[in-house]
Amino acid sequence: MSKKFKFSKIVYLTDTNAFGNTYFAKYFEWQGMAREEFFKQIAGGYSEMLTSGVKYITISASVNFKKESFLFNKIGITVEPKRISLTTVELLFTFTNEETNEVLAIGKQKIGFSNIDNVVIPIPRELLEGAKKYLDKVELKNVEKVIGKLSS
Fold first, then answer.
1. Taking the CB of residue 68, how many other CB atoms lie within 10 A of it?
2. Tens-digit pLDDT profile for residues 67-116
3. How far is CA 148 from CA 97, 127, 128, 129, 135, in A?
4. What are the structural domains, with CATH classification, of the chain?
5. Single pTM value for the model
6. Which residue of 116, 125, 148, 152 has the fewest C-beta atoms within 10 A of its own C-beta?
């Protein structure tokens, strides 16, 4: 069984709208925060990778809302890497209210990578290696193939 990566966020006043619920765009912001923390945790030299010129690019992003969240709710965001190819990875986000365990939203991002000259590059090996413990058997087998391509 694969391990789950979890990021927590508390809803503050700045996250809400005039009606008192969380403003919808905050979920995209939180996806970005959870994504960055995930990459930082799985790749020991993540900061160095970014300063060396590796860029990650959001190709697509979506959020499907299920329930509202409100001021001071504690939100748990799980991140699951899926559909990994040589140059892209899809990240699935599940937003839950940690007090009620209700699913609030499901999000997706497709991420690609480029160098400083905006030329598409393979996913950095450090990210692939670090992501292994968060993959199911099918994705793990797929990542091993991708790593094999990087080695050849």
1. 15
2. 999 999 999 999 999 999 999 999 999 999 999 999 999 999 999 999 99
3. 39, 14, 11, 12, 17
4. 5-151 (3.10.129.10)
5. 0.92
6. 152
